[in-house]
């Protein structure tokens, strides 16, 4: 069955501790500085390891798939409306912060990761409820500068037709798994290998 399982691995055996049958279609996972684990599908779930019987659910306004990621150990989601940041208070919720959303048109963010102090994103322009490929589509970097985040996609225009599925970051490179194979981006040389 398609659900979220809390398991324990010990002595080369996996034991199911709890099943959350209502948490289906999980596509992304991220942890915050407090050790909470967030999962996303069309909803966002927060698992607190100190309270394993409770899985908090955040229903956002749209029913599209969300992508949860962390940036500086804080939780964000990529949505059909841009990037939302998680705020913990008496009423935990997600807020759209303008500093992360300097895009034209209506975009969906199905993939994101932190590389150094920057955010790497995959964006799809969905203005007027039509998926259209424009200057806002494809891979881009939100560079964290002293004056705020600046969008940069100059390098990625040459690989625009590729659809990324995953990012993997190491000390020197970012690997981008795409529909047409693997691309490596050398962080030290700023060009495609």
How would you portray this structure in words?
The protein has no helices and 18 strands. Helix content is 0%, strand content 53%. With 193 residues, the chain is an all-beta fold. 23% of the residues are buried. A 4-stranded antiparallel β-sheet has the order 3-4-5-6, with no helix packed on it. The chain has strands spanning 4-10, 13-20, 28-31, 37-40, 44-47, 55-58, 67-71, 74-79, 82-87, 93-96, 107-115, 118-125, 138-145, 148-152, 164-169, 173-178, 181-186, 191-192.
SSE layout:
Blueprint: E1 4-10, E2 13-20, E3 28-31, E4 37-40, E5 44-47, E6 55-58, E7 67-71, E8 74-79, E9 82-87, E10 93-96, E11 107-115, E12 118-125, E13 138-145, E14 148-152, E15 164-169, E16 173-178, E17 181-186, E18 191-192
Antiparallel strand pairs: 1-2, 3-4, 4-5, 5-6, 7-8, 8-9, 9-10, 11-12, 12-13, 13-14, 15-16, 16-17, 17-18
What is the string of helix and strand elements? EEEEEEEEEEEEEEEEEE
Which structural category do the helix and sheet elements fall into? mainly beta
**Contiguous uncertain segments of 5+ residues:** none
Fraction in helix: under 10%
What oligomeric state best describes the polypeptide chains here? single chain
Determine the mean pLDDT. 81
Task: Name the features.
mainly beta; 193 residues; 18 strands; single chain
Concise overview:
The chain is mainly β and 193 residues long. Helix content is 0%, strand content 53%.
């Amino acid at each position: 069955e398609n659900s979220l399982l809390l398991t324990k691995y010990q002595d080369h055996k996996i034991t199911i501790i709890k099943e959350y049958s209502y948490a289906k279609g999980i596509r992304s996972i991220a942890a915050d500085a407090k050790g909470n684990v967030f999962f996303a599908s069309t909803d966002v779930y927060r698992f607190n390891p100190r309270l394993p019987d409770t899985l908090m659910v955040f229903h956002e306004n749209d029913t599209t798939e969300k992508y949860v990621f962390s940036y500086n150990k804080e939780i964000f989601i990529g949505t059909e409306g841009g990037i939302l940041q998680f705020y913990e208070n008496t009423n935990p919720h997600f807020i759209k912060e303008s500093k992360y959303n300097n895009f034209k048109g209506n975009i969906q963010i199905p993939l994101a990761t932190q590389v150094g102090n920057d955010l790497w994103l995959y964006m799809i322009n969905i203005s007027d409820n039509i998926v259209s490929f424009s200057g806002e589509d494809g891979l881009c970097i939100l560079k964290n500068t002293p004056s705020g985040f600046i969008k940069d996609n100059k390098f990625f225009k040459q690989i625009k037709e590729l659809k990324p599925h995953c990012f993997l970051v190491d000390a020197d490179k970012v690997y981008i798994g795409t529909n047409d194979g693997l691309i490596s981006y050398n962080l030290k040389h700023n060009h495609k290998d």
